[in-house]
Amino acid sequence: MQLSSAFLPILFLFSLVSAHNVLLPANGKRCFFENLKKNDELAVSFQFGNRDVRSTLQLTGDFWITSPKGTIIKSLKEVSHGDVSVKASDAGKYGYCFSNEMASIDTKDVSFNIHGVVYVDVTDPSNDSLDAAVRRLSILTQEVKNEQSYIVVRERTHRNTAESTNERVKWWSIFQLIVVAGNCIFQIVYLKRFFEVKTLL
């Protein structure tokens, strides 16, 4: 199964599931490849079986996943079934193989399902899918909400500062008024005494 690049801009997390059943050759292996982009996830669940209806043996085999560079990322040895998932650290062709190399049985088969989780970068401006647009809108809405919260806190702080300043100005003005009134009363009393006519006996 090849993941088409046309699926990438469709959904943010869109699961692709495909079931397969293949016959493994005697002393051979079967490999499949997926083109993944960075942060895509590839999950494989599998079960080894026997096409011979008269057989009652539980057959086993090997399984591994390789990176685009050919190195083995994960592997399982002599298992009858498994469920393995990897996250693509780099873009490229990832391979997964089922091996019957250690046995000459020619009726061994494997049933497997591929679960691909496609990652879509919502910050990519070239991505014009509806889901990406919704995600971008959600991010912008969260940014506006954070900005509003910051503005509310800032407005509260500035209001408290202004009210404190107004309170100080009020009391300073009252103090100045008392000083001016006291000065006026003092001057009136002083001048009144200065111009008083004193009689000599």
Please give a handful of descriptors for the protein shown.
single chain, 201 residues, alpha+beta, Jelly Rolls, four-stranded antiparallel beta sheet, 1 helix, 35% strand, rod-shaped, disordered N terminus, signal, transmembrane, Emp24-like, membrane
Shape: rod-shaped
Ends distance: 133 Å
CATH top level of the largest domain is Mainly Beta
Q: What is the total tally of β strands?
A: 8
Q: What's the overall average pLDDT, rounded?
A: 82
Biggest sheet strand order reads 1-8-3-6
How many structural domains? 2
Domain GOLD: 29-116
Membrane topology: Single-pass membrane protein; Single-pass type I membrane protein
Protein name: GOLD domain-containing protein
Transmembrane segments: 171-191
Description:
The chain crosses the membrane at residues 171-191. It is found in: Endomembrane system; Membrane. Residues 1-19 form the signal peptide. By secondary structure, the protein is an alpha+beta fold. The chain has two domains: 5-120, Jelly Rolls (Sandwich); 130-195. It has one helix at residues 130-194; strands spanning 13-23, 29-36, 41-50, 61-66, 72-79, 81-87, 92-99, 108-119. The strands form two sheets. Strands 1-8-3-6 form a four-stranded antiparallel beta sheet, with no helix packed on it. A four-stranded antiparallel beta sheet has the order 2-7-4-5, with no helix packed on it. A hairpin with a 5-residue loop joins strand 4 and strand 5 (72-79).
Describe the structure concisely for a colleague.
Helix content is 32%, strand content 35%.
Q: Secondary-structure blueprint of this entry?
A:
Layout: E1 13-23, E2 29-36, E3 41-50, E4 61-66, E5 72-79, E6 81-87, E7 92-99, E8 108-119, H1 130-194
Antiparallel strand pairs: 1-8, 2-7, 3-6, 3-8, 4-5, 4-7
Protein name: GOLD domain-containing protein
Subcellular location: Endomembrane system; Membrane
Main location: membrane
